[in-house]
């Protein structure tokens, strides 16, 4: 007997969201490679971290389905865009992607509420907060790149290097 605490109507939408998160993962890998090739290691590292976060998001959805004894379907995803005019184009693409994912999460939350699916609703609240952070971070990065211009990206690199040094390590932030 299958035991699930989530609405059967939301399951196919969660499958689609797994695909969307994996699509973002691949896009951020492509952007990281672009910055690596351009000898901008801090921007490359930023997008490598973003890629891993997106993979982690896909895994959260997958685990929710597994925990609810639901069969998992992982959709195919289109190849990422790999040609970028410049840094601003690459980061703009990232911001557009985050805004699209935010709307997808909001749609999932609306469906969960409509279905009185409290398990999914509670699960999705984490993503609402996460998307606010993601959109804010990428928007700030885009504004810095626009201010610096494509010929002064080393200023952005310097800022990213300094902000990485100011962040507590994962161990420190967890109180360890």
Automatic annotation (TrEMBL):
It catalyses: 4 Fe(2+) + O2 + 6 H2O = 4 iron(III) oxide-hydroxide + 12 H(+). Residues 4-149 form the Ferritin-like diiron domain. SUPFAM superfamilies: Ferritin-like. GO terms for biological process: intracellular iron ion homeostasis; iron ion transport. The keyword rRNA processing does not apply. Fe cation binds at residues 21, 54, 57, 98, 131. Signal peptide: none annotated. It is found in: Cytoplasm. InterPro entries: Ferritin, Ferritin-like, Ferritin-like_diiron, Ferritin-like_SF, Ferritin_DPS_dom, Ferritin_prok. Its main location: cytoplasm. Pfam families: Ferritin. It comes from the Bacteria. PROSITE patterns: FERRITIN_LIKE. GO terms for molecular function: ferric iron binding; ferrous iron binding; ferroxidase activity. Its EC number is 1.16.3.2. GO terms for cellular component: cytosol. Belongs to the ferritin family. Prokaryotic subfamily. Iron-storage protein. This is Ferritin.
């Amino acid at each position: 007997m299958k035991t699930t605490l989530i609405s059967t109507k939301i399951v196919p939408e969660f499958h689609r969201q797994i695909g969307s998160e994996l699509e973002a993962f691949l896009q951020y890998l492509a952007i990281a490679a672009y910055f690596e090739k351009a000898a901008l290691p801090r921007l490359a590292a930023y997008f490598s971290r973003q890629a891993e976060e997106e993979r982690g998001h896909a895994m959260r959805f997958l685990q929710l389905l597994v925990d609810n004894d639901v069969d998992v379907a992982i959709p195919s995803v289109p190849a990422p865009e790999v040609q970028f005019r410049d840094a601003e184009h690459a980061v703009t693409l990232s911001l557009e992607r985050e805004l699209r994912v935010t709307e997808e999460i909001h749609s999932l939350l609306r469906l969960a509420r409509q279905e009185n699916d409290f398990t999914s609703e509670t699960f999705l609240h984490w993503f609402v907060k996460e998307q606010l952070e993601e959109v804010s971070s990428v928007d700030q990065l885009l504004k810095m790149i626009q201010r610096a211009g494509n010929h002064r990206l080393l200023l952005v690199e310097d800022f990213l290097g300094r902000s990485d040094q100011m962040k507590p390590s994962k161990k420190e932030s967890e109180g360890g």
